[in-house]
Design goal:
Layout lengths: L1 H21 L2 E9 L6 E10 L2 E6 L9 E12 L1 E6 L12 H8 L2 H17 L2 E6 L7 H10 L7 E4 L3 E3 L19 E3 L3 H13 L5 E4 L9 H13 L4 E5 L2 H9 L4 E4 L5 H9 L4 E3 L4 H6 L8 H17 L4 E3 L12 H6 L1 H7 L4 H8 L1 H7 L16 E4 L15 E4 L2 E4 L2
Parallel strand pairs: 1-4, 5-6, 6-7, 8-9, 10-11, 11-12, 12-13, 13-14
Antiparallel strand pairs: 1-2, 2-3, 4-15, 15-16, 16-17
Length: 419
């Protein structure tokens, strides 16, 4: 009996000693929210070491020497995710076509600096992971990702797309004298060889996901073209995200089994049903009214008309049980808001589409995690996963607006923001 007792004491001692040496952190979580199920566990202890969650329990003994963070009066949940960002794009020109002018006037180095600002604002708002899907000049997104990974600047984990691949012309119209004015925003790729070359060049220069503009012109990629691009991306371990602005484009992308449908503005009920049947994630970029109003000069309709159309598309997705993930697609400056605050205005879009608070929370967390492809890595508060954790003052399942009041942010076990 004495030997057993001695062994236990030695084990406890070395456990405490090891915790102190490794710089363990413990979070006292008053209310731990599971976005997958909506369950809330009270008075949990989260043990973190080396940037990862080691254990979550209500009976865990706090290791001696651990750094204790008391959030016993807060609601704790995984960091939020945004599947469709443009961090290195910050249009601030309502008088002209800001889309075009930013390409003409702003070099890649300046775009990268914009990205540093927006990345920090997103992280402090509670977004610990984003997928950045192009419009970054000449790989400003890759430079931003590397700078964050190296600890030079603050920002979320970034899964970046590099240059967008599209049919000739991209998402705008070019003239014969200036066929290249939208470069380097886009790779114009119309043959299989051009598609392959564009994908490989993107990967070589640091892309972690491939973004394909399926339509936006009178000519669009066929399902076979998209499947070819998907296979080429998959060979290097990358997913393919498909920008779709028409029903025909979305249907081709769904038939090709892409990783996600981005936007889906023109999708019909039948195409929504097909997306649900094939379990293709729909990344909703249903602009909020403040964002649409900031882009008024670039819109073909009034902000309210575009907002209503977007909300109806999102509502249709939920009515057809489509797997919905969140994407902001913000490209410009919203008055009196930084990028993080502007992104959180999209909560209203989901509310107006009839989504429940749990569905909204899932879109902003676990559904985006699965869409990006981060399962078993980050996006849940469980043993072995990255310690990406936020805290809010109220239950988000009862009041989703509390996501606008993030008081604590931890990324990879490092405290970024605290109350």
């Amino acid at each position: 009996m004495k030997k057993i007792l001695l062994s236990c004491l030695i084990a406890v001692f070395f456990s405490a000693w090891a915790a102190a040496q490794s710089g363990s952190t413990v979070i006292k979580a008053g209310y731990l929210v599971d976005p997958e199920t909506g369950a809330i566990s009270k008075d949990q202890i989260i043990l973190i070491e080396g940037g990862k969650i080691i254990q979550v329990s209500d009976v865990l003994k706090i290791p001696k020497g651990a750094n204790v963070i008391d959030l016993s009066d807060q609601y704790i949940l995984p960091g939020m995710m945004d599947c469709h960002t443009h961090l290195c794009w910050h249009i601030n020109d309502k008088k002209n076509d800001g889309y075009v002018m930013s390409i003409v006037r702003e070099p890649t180095a300046y775009r990268a600096i914009q990205g540093v600002m927006n990345a920090k604002d997103m992280l402090h708002a509670g977004f610990t992971t984003v997928r950045d899907v192009g419009n970054n000049g000449n790989y400003a997104d890759a430079a931003l990702r590397m700078a964050i990974e190296d600890g030079l600047v603050e920002g979320p984990t970034i899964v970046n797309a590099g240059r967008i691949i599209s049919p000739f012309g991209g998402q705008r119209w070019v003239i014969p004298e200036r066929k290249d004015y939208t470069q380097p925003e886009y790779f114009f790729a119309d043959t299989r060889d051009e598609i392959k070359k564009a994908i490989r060049e993107n990967i070589h220069f640091g892309a972690k996901v491939i973004k394909l503009v399926v339509d936006d012109q009178k000519y669009i990629y066929s399902a076979e073209d998209i499947a070819f691009a998907k296979k080429e991306a998959n060979l290097a371990g990358l997913k393919l995200a498909a920008h779709c602005a028409t029903d025909a484009g979305a249907r081709n992308a769904i038939e090709a089994n892409v990783a996600s449908i981005e936007h889906g503005f023109g999708m019909t009920p039948a195409t929504m049903a097909l997306a649900a049947e094939k379990q293709i994630p729909f990344v909703s970029t249903t602009f909020s009214l403040p964002v649409l109003e900031s882009l008024a000069s670039d819109l073909s309709h009034t902000p309210l008309e575009d907002y209503t159309s977007g909300v109806n598309t999102l509502k249709m997705a939920y009515e057809h049980d489509v797997f919905v993930a969140f994407g902001s697609d913000i490209i410009g400056k919203v008055p009196n808001m930084d990028r993080g605050a502007a992104t959180l205005t999209f909560l209203k879009s989901f509310q107006d589409a009839g989504a429940s608070n749990l569905q909204i929370l899932q879109a902003f967390t676990v559904n985006s995690m699965k869409t990006i492809g981060l399962q078993n890595e980050r996006g849940l508060i469980k043993s072995g996963w990255a310690a990406d954790i936020i805290a809010v003052p109220a239950d988000p399942i009862k009041n989703i607006e509390t996501l606008k009041q993030v008081v604590f942010v931890m990324k990879n076990g490092k405290v970024i923001k605290s109350k």
